[in-house]
Amino acid sequence: NNNNNNNNNNNNNSKNDECKDKAAQVWKTIATAEGIEKDEILTKYKIPDGLRGTYLINGFGSARIGKKRLVHPFESHGFFKAITFEDDGSIRFRAKYINTPVRKLEKIFQRPLFRGAMSSVADMDNPMGNFMNMLSPTTRETANLAVRKWGDTEENKRLIVTCDNAPYYSLDKDTLETKGIETLDTKILEGKKMLAHTRVDSARQRLVAVSLDYLPVDQATEIHFYEFDSTGKLVSDRKYKTSPAVVFHDWMLTPNYYIVPAAEAVFDLSKIPDLLLGKSAATGVFALDGDAAAKVLLIPRDPTKEVIESQMSDNTHGVSFHFGPSYERTTEDGRVTSIILHLFVFDRYQFGDEMGFRLDEQDFAPTPWSLSNGGPKLQRWTISLNDDDDDDDNTATSMSCERLSDLKADMPTFHPDKDGLFCRYMYSVAGIREEGFFPFNALCKYDLGEPDKPVEIWPPGAANAVRSNNYEDWDGGPGVYAEPLFVPRRQSDDGDSTVHEEEVGMNEDDGFLLTTFHDAEAGTTTLEIFDAQKFSDGPIQQIPLGELMGWNVHSSFDPA
How confident is the model at residue 14 (pLDDT cuts 50, 70, 90)? Predict the structure, then answer.
């Protein structure tokens, strides 16, 4: 019996090792994939009725720069895709590299020349490598994470591509050629280190952006919000300096507030010399405060009102990088009484080895990194504001959290007109693996109106593994899913819509879910289209896009 048990344990350990190795193999294959630029028409695939417009996708080029050296995928060159569903039923597929000065130079020299925050141009364990790193800039302007099309006329429309801690870039709307740095015709954005994520106030037709300035000596972060009208004109801005320093990637907009998930960070000034001398990556200079309670900044859009800093009442720690639907609760006279946030939250997190990238080893090991941070899980945070009528500032708050799912998931999307408003349905990627969660290999649909309902999961193998807690028939799959984007069903030409006013909330999922599947084993990339209301039935159309491309990150849709 003991021998049988030992054999079973050995078999299980062997299977776990194979799954770990498979996750690493799949991710390394995708992270180093080199997409091919193209502009082609696809005619043999049926486009669903109600889906017209352009699916705009930003994402990674190869993490391999030249023949040998790897950079972090977050700092790879941007590879942009536009998939247009034409009125005549054809599909135009365009793919183009974002040609920033960083890419232009590195394409010529066939090696990394800019080390960025998470990469290096040479090994850091020898004097020559240190010297080369010391001479290289600590920023990589690659514009590879997100995309937003903005403007109310053809003359002022801009196709804007973004990444974190770098300027925006704009692309030609037809050729996708890189036009240069985009400042939306205002000097206030010149030289700013923007965040990738933008938000849209649909009611006021405002595009809202944010920049950050880290101040290590002051142990502070300066946050600057900008609001642009439908023509691209700057109509307001607000700056706020907070200490301790905070780090964030995504944020939320409501009718009254900019909402920041403020993970407190500490700069280690003693490590700055190593950074300057090329012995350390920039992420080694700071660390998140693992003992700090989760904190949210409520920055009023009205500049005359005071900023509210709210932290978790029971001192629970949590770090979030992406927001789902979030909204205000108000009284009949418009007074905000509470704010509801849906976020994917890490119980613990420290920077280093993101996505399993091992800088020193020049390799990928996603499972150990996944296990080190536990994975992001869906939570609902409720911020209760002071409802004392005598207190006009509403500065007293309490904050609580509730976990809504144990799935390790992230990168949520929802109805594009619902930034800062209640939205019943939400979609995300998920990591369904026996150990770890990255890379993401599944998709999810959530009903936030009935959070006790089981989360819908695709593909069936992943769903069955979760429901049975048995991974015998699910090894993680051959590839990776990109962020799923919800696209509302287009109104018919006579103006009628499937969604009627009295049905809003019930039919907020009347539309399509668009994503790409990157199959490392087959060496292909496929566009998958789901009927969002019948998500669990699987894709209603799968359209081959050709060779394996680097992972697609964030996307948006232009219905025009």
Answer: low
